[in-house]
Amino acid sequence: MHAATDRLAFAPPATPGLLRSVALAVLAHTLLVAALTWGVRWKHDDRIVAVEAELWASVPVQAAPPLVEEPPPPPAPPVPEPAKAEPIVSNADIALARAKERKDKEKLLKEKLDKEKREKEKLAVEKKAAEEKKQKELAAQKAEQLKAQQETKLAEKRRQENIQRMTGLAGASGGPSATGTALKSADPSAGYQGRISARIKPNIVFTEDISDNPRVEVTVRTSPDGSIVGSSIRKSSGNKAWDEAVLKAIDKTEVLPRDVNGQVPSSLVIGFRPRD
Fold it and tell me: What does the pLDDT look like over 228-259, one tens digit per residue?
């Protein structure tokens, strides 16, 4: 007894609304069964009966021919439009048209001439600009050349002044207006050329017999010690054999004597005749 009481005491409480739920379930099942029954009866009550019948005529009747449709009539030819009447042109209209055409031609000709004129003016301006540029370049070149020449002259003048100053400081014997660069003048003395001729003539070998007495002038170049370094004909005598004999004699001489001042000119001209 006590065990049953304890078990009921710990049992879960009863679900509320249980009777109402059972009643709704019974009602729903009842409605479902009623709907199914009504549907089955409706299918059995509605029956469709198909009936076929054939018709027979008591007298034979022929069928009518099929309907033949007539072709549609051809379309009516298009109605030609009435020819437009040509406008009547009067002499005044012709004159106006010609005047307008002449003005248009004159306008085109004027535009062409104006364009050619503008092009010529443009070419002239460009040519003038090119000429001016060329003239400026030439003037600049001339100015540069002139400047270079002036600088060269100035440099040469300074060099000469330096040489004069140096030679003056070294005891040059020339005058204030002298232009030489040597300390002393090297002009040969009065009898120096005779001494040279006397040195060279014994070395001349000339065996030809000539009637005249032609003169040959020879330029002789020497070193500071008097050694002959070269000779050349300055003025020919007209006799080639005599000219060559003189040149060979100069080469054979080799050394010229010194002048009274103890120097030998670097270059001098000597004349020789066969009969002297």
Answer: 888 899 998 888 888 998 899 888 888 888 88
What are 70's two structure tokens? 């007539």
User: Rounded distance, CA 182 to CA 168, Å?
Assistant: 10
Structure tokens at 97: 């048209």
pLDDT at 41: 65
Q: How far is CA 48 from CA 38, 39, 54, in A?
A: 19, 17, 20
Of 187, 162, 189, 165, nearest to 176 by C-alpha is: 165
Helix H or strand E encompassing 110: helix 91-169
180: Cβ contacts below 8 Å, ≥ 6 apart: 174
How would residue 17 be classed by pLDDT, with cut points 50, 70 and 90?
low
Beta carbons of 262 and 186 less than 8 angstroms apart? no
With a cut of 80, say whether residue 143 has pLDDT above it. yes
| DSSP helix/strand/coil, 37 | helix
Q: Are 215 and 272 in contact (CB under 8 A)?
A: yes
Residue 237 near residue 214 (C-beta atoms within 8 A): yes
Q: Which residue has the tokens 């031609």?
A: 105
Dihedral in degrees, nearest 10, Cα atoms 151, 152, 156, 158: 20
pLDDT tens-place string over residues 44-83: 555 554 555 555 545 555 656 666 667 777 777 776 676 6
- Burial (CB < 10 A; 0-12, 13-18, 19+), residue 148, is exposed
Q: Are 257 and 268 in contact (CB under 8 A)?
A: no
Whole-model pTM: value is: 0.35
How confident is the model over 119-144, as a mean pLDDT? 91
Q: Is 165 exposed, middle or buried (0-12, 13-18, 19+ CB in 10 A)?
A: exposed
